Amino acid sequence: MKDFFLNDSSRVFAGANPFEVSDFVNRHVGSHQLRMSRSHDSSASLQHRKVGALDLCRLSYGTQARIISKGLPDIYHVQFILRGHCRYELSRDSLSLPAGHVLVINPEDPIDLTYSEDCEKFIVKIPTGMLNEACEEHRWFKPNERIKFNQVPYQFTELDSLIQLLSIVCQEAESGLATPQMLQHYNRVVTGKLMMMLKHNVCLDNPAGHSVCFDRLAQYIDDHIKDNLTAESLAAYAKMSLRSLYLLFEKNARTTPKNYIRQKKLERVYSSLMDPVQNIQNITAIALDYGFTHLGRFSEIYKATYGMLPSESLRQRQSRMG
Predict the structure, then answer these.
(1) Separation CA 256–CA 240 (nearest Å)
(2) How far is 98 from 210, CA to CA, in rounded Å?
(3) pTM of the full predicted structure?
């Protein structure tokens, strides 16, 4: 499996000083500090390939090495352990990752990794914007906070199709025949595949699940119809991004959250004005009660929706009452 990722055509260092490799990684893959427990020799190696917005990197320090970082701002690292062993120190735990395991490091996560002398790994560096774009493209519901992958290791056998895909991407990139457009297409496929195969905090519900989510929001709006509801407050309630909220309303209501809320408020006002049971004498009071503070604009919208002014609705009800 380790032979799937980057060949000698992508080699940058062979038999190099580990700090030379570390310096290259700092500039191209992610900021870190390299620490070694003993004197080093020239045994480090590195292969690197830029593929669209992705960075692919295969490296070995050739000695026991510890990597320290306060976090990787705005990038994710998917790390495949090809040979040897890696230990990942978390705040309250320690993960042991022998060869054949995969781990995702989230942006801003503190990094404390120790590699065995014979450890070799393959890293996929992914900008946060690519995962956000994948969520938008597939209409997945991203929470307001950053996309966060679970800190659980995977075995290669669990991610066989992802590994095969990355192998193809490496081959295409090294062939020199792939156009920039083709590589960008591969970027989208890789990020989509990652989101579908790994565990994270994004909701990948099917359309039926989307409808359930919309129904819950619609009920919330009905229950709080007199409140100052906004797209931001709905997104906070639903624990999703504004972008996901707008996609949800577009899919299920063919309108924006703002227009949907306004229409529901209008419906309540209309029902109240036409309901003979309700004792309504003042149109201004009921308009303000439902949040219509610009009375002239309110009358215009009401007439455009129901074909009559609010005052005409009230008179119509009173005539029916006799």
Answers:
(1) 15
(2) 39
(3) 0.67
